Amino acid sequence: MELELKRLIVSALNLEDMSPEEIDSDEPLFGDGGLGLDSIDALELGVAIRKTYDIRIETVSDEVRRHFASISALAAFIQQQKGPRS
To answer: Which domains does the chain have, with CATH numbers?
Structure first.
């Protein structure tokens, strides 16, 4: 799931100079760490996740921010959301 998410991020955010394998699963996605994504990237990533996994993220809250903290946190969130429907 983590590699799949990394591929989605590279594709959705047009990170042409980075390969999915270069992304550390535990580094912060936003701010000064890791990928250094911003709020526009967050919106694009949310849309890509909705289209790919059929998961809606309705409101931005501290809980949602925690889920988007890193690839590993995001993968766990997606698996949790998909679990009951499978």
So the answer is: 2-85 (1.10.1200.10)
